[in-house]
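Worked example 2:
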Amino acid sequence: MKEILQIQLQEEHYKAMLTQYHFRPIDLEQLKCLGEILLRVIEPVMYYAPCRITDAEDKAADTQLAVIVSLGAKVDDLQNEYIRREHLTEGYMIECIGMEFLKIAYEQTAEKLWEKYGLWMGAFDFLGDRYPLELIEDIFCLLAPEEISYNRAYMLTPKKTVVFITTLQRERKGGYCHICDACSNLQCPNRQNKTVNLNYGYQRIFGKP
């Protein structure tokens, strides 16, 4: 099943990004400008379907879902265009805004599943953590996501795409936007913490070793 998501960032989101991603106060207007551009081009979607990953005797297996959340390819296209022109600061800003968009997409995914099942998402089990990366092949066969793919190393395209297994539950979690905190994959390009995994060009800008 496929659902279209609606993403918006408020003023307070952009202000919080200044500290979280090490921007200066004078960068606020540029962040907001790039955010508005992204909002016009992103195509945020979620795919989901019941699956059965745990042992057949485990009752939790009856409420398991495979889920894919993506912002679409145009985020990558815009970021790549800025980088091609050597506007690396703007490229980094797009990376950070995209991660904030994903946070909102997680919350909306939870709301959509509540509307469908009357239950909330529980833990997020990302592939490569609790479950092997190879499971992505079965999930793609099950969900058949449009314009989303993976390579031989199971890297996803578009980049702002996540695949996970969740178990539905009656209680709502405190905040789905912090799901990366519990993930052990420190090299994930979508990891949402203050030590963003920068490529070489971004490291030169922000003085990272």
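The helical segments are 11-20, 28-41, 74-84, 88-117, 136-143, 200-206. Residues 189-209 have pLDDT under 50 and may be disordered.
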